[in-house]
């Protein structure tokens, strides 16, 4: 796209009666990047995603996705995006492979079986591909849901709070899937209320609060907004998440980390 933002929002407004949900939102998202829209419940994150995906019409302002205006060129926008909501939209009666084949056929794509097999391999679901989705864990369902969203190779993917309700292990699985999207050149707009999720995944982060963007920048830029911390020596203990992941055998470092003393800021 020659440096043109994959997503550009300017002065976005949306109200429901007397309730102002969006009060002039401005955002640019670079192509092939992961952009996190961070905010608490009710901040307006899902409303932004609905407007960008043409499911909702703004009261004012403009929004452009992959070069297409969401109002004047809604059909072209829909052809350029995929949306994964807060709950996995998978058919539990079908197998994982059958879910993927179904979507490929609905999109009138050639060789739906090959497409399904490629995506199962990409998201480490090959061994589970022949099983009914009802037997899948939460993380596996989420990975399958994201895989389904990639059928047709949309250049822009919206992930609306994709790890809501997942356990720590499943969240790590989804995080890896999201990273792989960006590595493949897909632009990802991720909404989340989890600070660590934005910190782990996003190249840029915007904080949405009461319908307005408070800050927008890289993690380093956001940290620079606060005064330098005083250097102290503290004893670092494993977090509960460290303990959980170590005990279930999915800690990236192998065994649970022993308490250490280190300089923190």
Structure characterization notes:
The strands form 3 sheets. This protein has a 6-stranded mixed β-sheet, with helices on both faces. It has a 4-stranded antiparallel β-sheet with strand order 2-1-4-5, with helices on one face. The protein has 265 residues and is an alpha/beta fold. It is built from 9 helices and 12 strands. The chain is 32% helix and 27% strand. Mean pLDDT is 87; it is low at 251-257. The radius of gyration is 20 Å and the shape is globular. The chain folds into 2 domains: 7-226, P-loop containing nucleotide triphosphate hydrolases (Rossmann fold); 229-265, no CATH class.
Key descriptive features of the protein:
265 residues; alpha/beta; Rossmann fold; six-stranded mixed sheet; four-stranded antiparallel sheet; 9 helices; 32% helix
Q: Kindly, what is the distance between the CA atoms of the first and last residues, rounded to a whole number of angstroms? A: 40 Å
CATH superfamily of the largest domain: P-loop containing nucleotide triphosphate hydrolases
CATH class of the largest domain: Alpha Beta
Could you spell the SSE succession in H and E letters? Answer: EEEHEEHEHHHEHEHEEHEHE
Helical proportion, percent range: 25-40%
Question: What is the strand content?
Answer: 25-35%
Largest sheet: 6 strands, mixed
Brief summary:
The chain has helices spanning 45-52, 74-80, 96-106, 112-122, 138-149, 168-183, 195-201, 219-223, 240-247, and strands spanning 7-16, 19-29, 34-38, 60-65, 68-69, 81-84, 156-160, 187-192, 204-209, 212-217, 232-236, 260-264. Helix content is 32%, strand content 27%.
